[in-house]
Write a structure and sequence with these properties.
five-stranded parallel beta sheet; 36% helix
């Protein structure tokens, strides 16, 4: 699966998981909205539709986009919602050291890994997480919900499943 990171340069470069994915060429760093594939799925925490296995074909064909920005500015995504197929990730617990144990405040690598697990690209998800000391902790903390989300039929079913973990 092709992964794209819209890099907003708001994070501490030493802690930025998106930059590390770019350095290892596991995702393409993009600095201009116009450079993103127009039909790719963008992971947007404010989207009204949940990411689900039904999105797999779109991701296979056009790619998956994560926005690498500070959570303090996550609501200010410039025109991305209008141009892309936006999806939010369901209930998951963070393992990254900055937001450890919080619900939903995923790092860029956690967001990509979660989406990849949900659509069945487990090997690619594990490869991304393997770059980080805490990567396996994310998989462990979320193993049950990710397994259940990956068996959902569509977005509605993912939302229904997440209620069990809230």
């Amino acid at each position: 699966m092709r992964l794209y990171i819209y890099q907003m340069k708001q994070c501490d470069p030493r802690k930025c998981t998106g930059l590390k994915l770019g350095r290892f060429r596991l995702a393409k760093l993009v600095h201009r909205i116009q450079s993103l594939p127009s039909k790719a799925v963008i992971l947007d925490p404010y989207s009204e539709k949940a990411f689900s296995p039904a999105d797999r074909k779109i991701v296979e064909q056009y790619g998956l986009v994560a926005v690498d920005c500070s959570w303090a500015h996550a609501g200010e995504l410039p025109n991305l919602r209008k141009q892309k197929i936006a999806r939010c990730l369901p209930y998951l617990i963070t393992a990254n050291p900055v937001n450890y144990g919080q619900v939903g405040k995923l790092s860029t690598v956690e967001a990509f890994a979660a989406a990849l697990y949900i659509i069945g690209a487990v090997e690619q998800a594990e490869r991304l997480l393997s770059l980080f000391k805490w990567g396996s902790t994310f998989s462990t903390l979320n193993s049950e919900p990710l397994a259940m989300y990956s068996k959902a039929k569509d977005s509605t079913e993912v939302v229904s499943i997440q209620k069990q973990f809230m």
